[in-house]
Amino acid sequence: MTTEPPGASPSFAVLTADDPAEIGGYRLHARLGSGGMGHVYLAYTPGGRPVALKTVRPELAGDPEFRHRFGQEVANARRIHGLYTAQVIDAGVDAVTPWLATAYVPAPSLHEVARRHGPLPVETVLLLMAGVAEALQSIHGAGVVHRDLKPANVLVTADGPRVIDFGIARAADAVALTSAGLRIGTPAFMAPEQALGQPATSATDVFALGALAVYAAGGTPPFGDCPESVALYRAVHEQPDLTRVPAELHALLGQCLAKDPAERPTTSAVIEAVRRHPSVGARVRFTDGWLPTAVRTELSRHGDLPEPPASPHAQPTVTATPVPLPRAEVPGPASPPAPTRRAGRPVRWIVLTAIAALLLGGGAVYYLDYPPEDPAPPSGTEQSQDAPGDEYRPGYAGVELTSPDLSYEFDLQNGKVVPESSVDWYLSRTATAFTIPDDSDAFVASGDSLTPDGCLKGLDSSPVTSLKFSELEEQHPFCIRSANGRDIMIVRLVEAVPGGGAVTVSLSHYGKDA
User: Fold this and answer.
1) Which of 36, 390, 423, 461 is at a distance of 20 to 30 A from 75, taking alpha carbons?
2) What is the pLDDT of residues 486-509, one digit of tens each?
């Protein structure tokens, strides 16, 4: 279960040339992550206090309905003052690129803790539930539904959990739910009503709390580690798998995971159930012993913040101008059309499966997440200063997408899942292999890492035409170069369900100017 040293310090990504030096008077020092909503930065107030500053993507910023809802949700979020939430301290709702600043909590997420240390003890899980339930009371009391409660959005501190990233999801719903097939949330922790596109309520967050507790106690989500489309189907039609969860938690978690929202307990009832549980003994307190020793040791290392840069950032101060996002997401002139369009590729009659039609609505599943930036390549794989790969600038990184069946493909330029035959630069698939445009070329790495420079050298020396799933284990990434040579995509196969089922990949985009 452990994939990193238990005492690992938090990782911060260095600011790129595209990042501004300042937003709304807050000095930016590092990236904390990037995802479907935009970027998250570690920033400082003029007086030196750290904050987590989130920006939103240009396409959301340009939508009037999103901006209206974003302003409403920020106003609601500012009224949330719970002890187990990260306080919203400032926002730029009228900026060209809206942003939101919250208190920075120097602590690992529950996702990180479970990944490094494995399942948590019963008492820890119960206390975690009580703390998160109290945070939800504060959030719901302000008229807000979190909608994306998951392990990555719960920070683990010495004096209890902290819930983060509330206040944007509902605003994003206003945009996403007017577009066919889009969902806001994380499929592995979505309630049935969310999977079906129905309104989210406080009971929706209680379901997510139960799913989060299953993950903390057993190491996997309640419907297993599976592709997004499968998780959505199981949330609606199947019972949660509690076989890895200690028996003394089954009753409470089963109630939280009820299919019918009306049958789930309220947050107050969850706290009372924890208080009555024999493992807690009527005292819901976050003392020194509420966390395992290894986790407590790790917490002491999370207060180490990166050193401020020696000189001011090269970019000018920005307060009311757009925050540039990855190149592939910035609207601009379209690339010249490819000279050919999928020559020789047979046309298939597309029959959507019932699951895809019901749960995906013909589009991608979008979810709020701020995954860590891709780590630096291992020693020996760095690009030299004058390497050809240095011409390529990072775009979006580590975006995980799932094609639910043969009628969907990956839009490489924009990092989306789209219906087949709708884009020119694509990664499609058969039941056993990937296919790419005839005017693109590919290379498969022999090791477990791949850089743009390594991709270019490989394309020149060892291009491939076969991309069979059986030959693409997760530790062997491959790359694809666009027909005009301006874009490179580094791809990792995460999972391929046999027989033409769902295929999940991780995509990292690099591009260069014309």
Assistant:
1) 36
2) 999 999 998 888 877 888 888 999
Backbone angles phi, psi at 169, to 5 degrees: -60, -40
Cβ atoms of 131 and 109 within 8 Å: the answer is: no
- 197 contacts 363 by C-beta, under 8 angstroms: no
Report in angstroms the alpha-carbon separations of 495 from 183, 241, 296, 422, 509: 22, 21, 34, 23, 20
Q: Alpha helices, DSSP H only, in 219-249?
A: 228-237
Q: Exposure of 488 by Cβ count < 10 A (0-12 exposed, 13-18 middle, 19+ buried)?
A: buried
According to DSSP, residue 18 is labeled T
Clarify whether 148 is annotated catalytic. Answer: yes
Q: CB burial class (10 A; 0-12, 13-18, 19+) of residue 289?
A: exposed
Tell me, yes or no, if the pTM score tops 0.70. no
126-160 residues labelled b (16+ CB within 10 A) or e (exposed): bbbbbbbbbbbbbbbebebbbbbbbbbbbbbbeeb
pLDDT digits (tens, 9 = 90+) for 425-482: 999 998 889 999 888 889 999 888 899 999 999 998 999 888 988 888 656 899 999 9
Higher per-residue pLDDT: 165 or 412 = 412
Q: Are 395 and 497 in contact (CB under 8 A)?
A: no
What pLDDT score does 184 carry? 55
Owner of token pair 């769902």: 502
